[in-house]
Amino acid sequence: MNKRTIMVFNHRKRQEALEAARTVCEILEKAGIATVGRGSDTQVELIIVLGGDGTILEAAYIAQSQQVPLVGVNLGHVGFLAEAEEENLEDLCRRVINGDYQVERRMCIDAEIRTPDGKINTEWAANDIAVLSTDSGHPALLAFGVDGGAVSEYGADGLIVSTPTGSTAYNFSVGGPVVWPDVQALVLSPLAAHGLFTRSLVLGPTAVLEIQVLPNQVQDCEVWADGNRVLQAPPGTSIRVTKSASDMQLARLVSQPFSARLVKKFDLPVEGWRRRK
């Protein structure tokens, strides 16, 4: 019988993350479970992530390549993707040791980036794909279409294509809608766009979204995947975004409605809701 192996993926620089990682490794290894750190190519059954949402998104890229779930411990600020807080570390380890968790699957997106020289690169994102101007003083000239038909073009600091999971991240900060995670949809939101039609759009899961960096501009753009990985997009580049066949798998310790997580993480006022006499 193969020994169980779990990856412990911590924030690189935060001391509390390093200390938490040591604690987790000690608890798991005492239970007979092998542990590996970030950078290992060992096949694991689960990834425990110690940090904020950025660290969780880093680990998500590895988790999807191995097709395993991840569980986040919030050591950041909002920690929207995290399942536990630092004070619940021992309980989380116990639940992981016993396999006492449910796996929730989240829709993700793929991006195909085709540059004018004919090169094609691909990316995967759990949260968002962002096409951004590299010149803060000048907007990028961008056009987009859906399912092969042109929709609009304008000057903008960028365009953000998010998943329902990512709708509470960069998309939310630019005024885009919050989308419940069980909805299958792509959300397109412009960033500081100049034009008559600059609203966010919610597209169906089978939509093929194409963004073009128009050739009549001088600066390059950048294509960011989950804020972690970046590709250059010179004028004339085309970015094709579709629903991915590869989901993100989140290990959940507690079953709760998304509305409860939204209220908790954003500290929303709800005292007047159905107030009882």
Automatic annotation (TrEMBL):
Q: What reaction is this protein's catalytic activity?
A: NAD(+) + ATP = ADP + NADP(+) + H(+)
Name where it mostly resides: cytoplasm
Instruction: List the record's Gene Ontology CC terms alphabetically.
Output: cytoplasm
Spell out the InterPro entries in the cross-references.
ATP-NAD_kinase_N, ATP-NAD_kinase_PpnK-typ_C, NAD/diacylglycerol_kinase_sf, NADK
Protein name stated in the entry: NAD kinase
**Catalytic residues as annotated in Swiss-Prot or TrEMBL:** D53
Domain of life according to the entry = Bacteria
